[in-house]
From TrEMBL:
Domain (Rab3GAP regulatory subunit C-terminal): residue spans on this chain: 25-230
UniProt name for this protein: Rab3GAP regulatory subunit C-terminal domain-containing protein
Short name of any one Pfam family annotated for the protein: RAB3GAP2_C
InterPro entries from the UniProt entry: RAB3GAP2_C
Species this protein is from: Caenorhabditis remanei
Amino acid sequence: MMSRWFREKDQNFSHISKCTALLPESLVDPRLRHGIARLIWDKFIGAAFQSIVQLVEKTGRRPKDRECRKEIGMGDVRLEEFLLECEKFLDILMVAVRDMPAPIDFKQDLLVEVSLNAIEGGVVQMAYSSFASHLQQSKTTSSRHDQLSSLASRQSLVNFHLVLHHQHLALALRLQLTTGLRFHPLRNLFCVTGNRAFFAPLDSHPLIPLDRVDDATLEKRHAFLIKVAEQGGMEERRLARNLEMEWKLTVNEISFMQALSSFRHGNDHQGALELASCVRDDRSAVALARVLAGRLIQLATEANKRYSTAHSQYLCGLAGEEAARVELYEASGDEDPLVDRNPKTWKEAVTSLGRAGNSVPQSAQAAIPFVRMNDIAKLYFGAQWVNN
């Protein structure tokens, strides 16, 4: 299956996903499953994964289709899907090796055979034969399947943390390609020691500082995940939060970006739930105030009203690009339960976000935009969320 994929990656791309699905289901024995996955990674997957990483690292952007076909043998549209399969293969290796007993170590080149008849007679007779000759004899009589099983079982166990290190890279690279960020993942997300560990044999034991990196690398990781949360969709933000926890970073920024994105898309119900789990401060209050200003601009358009020059300049200056980002919630299906829980008009949207954001500011200075926009909404539309 994988040899067909390797020869014609585009035409037989479905084979790789079938393989990752079949491995955990069909191979119960963890050593055999580990060995087969290790052989597939070393022979078919690892080199292609390394090529993709190096292509992105060279330019900091998504490789062009021509580059992908020349270096990897498949089109650029397959990159994210291939990286996802890489993550699955690495996960199979980690699960298989996690609690597996150590491999048997034959200290003697001998095979001990015990005669059951001799045991019954009270005398244990042991016959010694050459273990090497026994393997040679088995090789000539066993089927190809038995040979593959034997080869897989003899694969040395992978270094769990080294495999996890590669999985972090695969996930970060997939997030970068999905969100379209220009970024150099190796030099920005991993320290010098971590970079040296990449693409080493998975059974080697280099020092992997998964979460013990310098402050500069931590800041770069944090900035990268914030960009993913800001530019990605719901799934990308979920994966960014997972990666942030793996790297032992604070999850507050990602949680807040999730809430902010929900408010931008008019999903106030989900946004309020996510906002409740965040540590709220003046910075988050400013971000919510900008979204609220954007909604007030949209409300004036919907109601066909014009603000005074002073109010218009204030709202436009505060909203910035948020004026073009905000939208009302759109149902994802015929029976979307969130339709009735979210604002349906811009007037409802303004009041909803005003109430949600009113409790966020920690200082009087940060609360000023909410008070002022409450006055504007009350003056022009009779809507308010603060009684003053």
